[in-house]
Design brief:
The chain is an alpha/beta fold. The protein has two domains: 116 residues, Orthogonal Bundle (Arc Repressor Mutant, subunit A); 293 residues, pyruvate-formate lyase- activating enzyme (Alpha-Beta Horseshoe). The chain has 16 helices and 19 strands. The strands form five sheets. A nine-stranded mixed β-sheet has the order 9-10-8-7-6-5-4-1-13. α8 links the parallel β7 and β8. The relative contact order is 0.16. The mean pLDDT is 93.
Length: 456
């Protein structure tokens, strides 16, 4: 892949505004508390899907990473996880009867730190889920791993209970960066753990990296990228650090003067994309890379890649049920989210056996626009005939007020708009969020734009 086409500085500066990452449309900012558990139950009944993806949120972390904006609880008391699992068991027992005619094709544990759990707790939760839900024989099971506070043989245990994909949070191998963000970890251990995971049979290993962290420099980040090449993961997630100390208190420990400036951060991103593509990875989306034989890369080349709250996926035909504090669901024509505070989650489970706090029932317009945005985000292409046939509309007529907003991208040579399709050029990969915003009815109100991260 020719990476030079991604980095027209003039164009990137022109379009470097704030916008959604479009793991959903509408975004979670549109969720409201008028959405109830009855609405969710109706969405399950009415859903045309009968394949299910399960997401389980484990909120606990041993220590606080200063850059983190995730929903987490910092503690070193593992018994707190026993309490959490007891309440989670109640939620599972309450939800599972609604999904008796579903087959679980995908299971993902995120956090927080799912590997905060002991081996016994991990086994207990897996058994609980498999007891209550119908699992497919061919199941994708993935888990996020913090390489601190674990032993190498955890890879064996995870594989023995069914996990076949892992995602490891590396962020950066540089010692100074690690110390500043309060995430010191052993490079040697990460290498050993990944090698052990591959040896015992894991299908896929993903590594997370972040650019824009304090004290990151081109020469040190280049060493991190070279180490990633040596480790040879199947997928790489490359995230931009969003410094929002007004929203995330821990980030106030990171001084502004420690952060790369705009030009330096851009250079870090450019270095990462060029390096990873040179190493043979395919640039899947704005922040994902995969080997050419990975199913994400294959799906994108075939035009069938999908995107949901967990990012890029090949399981586009699955409803998504989120379990645990703050977990998000996408079922039928609805989105919903559980309560974010742990104490309130426990109280809701005690009182109602569920913890739905807010959500959204999608309108027909939401469904149409969501389909267009998803196709652009995933495949850089949307067939107007496919949209017309699926929703019984005339694309150009339906989007008559939106299509003129594409003219600036057409003038800049970033996309083409014909009678048949909208096709985004490879040179616009880093600006795909901007293009999608042209079809976002909520963004036109500009009310919440400042709450999103910057595109570049």
């Amino acid at each position: 892949m020719q990476t030079a086409q991604f980095f027209d500085q003039k164009l990137l500066s022109k379009y470097n505004t704030s916008g959604p990452r479009y793991t959903s449309y509408p975004t979670a900012l549109e969720f409201h508390d008028e959405f109830t558990d009855l609405d969710l139950t109706k969405a399950i009944t009415d859903s045309p899907n009968r394949d299910l993806s399960l997401y389980v949120h484990i909120p606990f972390c041993h220590s606080l990473c200063y850059y983190c904006g995730c929903n987490k609880v910092i503690t070193r008391h593992r018994d707190k996880a026993d309490t959490y699992l007891a309440f989670l068991a109640q939620e599972i027992a309450s939800r599972a009867p609604l999904f008796t005619d579903y087959t679980v094709k995908q299971l993902h544990w995120g956090g927080g730190t799912p590997t905060f759990l002991t081996k016994a707790q991990i086994s207990k939760l897996v058994n609980l889920l498999k007891t209550h839900f119908n699992f497919a024989d061919e199941l994708e099971m993935s888990i996020e791993v913090d390489p601190r506070e674990i032993d190498v043989d955890l890879a064996d245990h995870l594989y023995s209970v069914g996990f076949n994909r892992i995602s490891i949070g590396v962020q950066d191998f540089d010692a100074k960066v690690q110390e500043t963000i309060n995430r010191v970890q052993s490079t040697e251990f990460i290498e050993k753990f990944i090698q052990r995971a591959k040896t015992v049979g894991f299908k896929s290993v993903n590594v997370d990296l972040i650019y824009g962290l304090p004290h990151q420099e081109l020469n040190t980040f280049a060493k991190t990228l070279a180490k990633i090449q040596a480790i040879d993961p199947d997928r790489i997630s490359l995230f931009s650090y969003a410094h929002l100390p007004s929203r995330f208190a821990a980030q106030r420990k990171l001084r502004d003067e420690w952060l790369p400036n705009v030009d330096e951060k851009f250079a870090l991103m450019k270095l990462a994309i060029e390096s990873l593509c040179d190493y043979g990875y395919e640039f899947i989306g704005m922040d994902h890379f995969a080997k050419p034989d990975d199913e994400l890369a294959i799906a994108q080349r075939s035009g069938v890649l999908h995107r949901n709250f967990q990012g890029y996926t090949t399981k586009g035909d699955c409803d998504l049920l989120g379990l645990g504090v703050s977990a998000i669901s996408a079922i039928g024509h609805s989105y919903s989210q559980n309560i974010k505070e742990l104490k309130d989650y426990y109280q809701a489970i005690d009182d109602h056996q569920h913890a739905v706090e807010k959500g959204l029932t999608l309108s027909e317009d939401d469904l149409i626009r969501g389909e267009v945005i998803r196709e652009l985000m995933c495949n850089l292409y949307v067939s107007k005939n496919a949209i017309n046939n699926k929703f019984s509309i005339d694309f150009d007529q339906y989007f008559a007020h939106d299509l003129p907003q594409l003219q600036t991208f057409i003038d800049d040579g970033l996309l083409t708009n014909t009678d048949e399709a909208i096709s985004v050029k490879q040179s616009a990969r880093l600006l795909i969020r901007n293009i999608c915003m042209s079809f976002d009815a909520y963004m036109k109100k500009k009310v919440n734009q400042q709450r999103f991260s910057r595109v570049i």
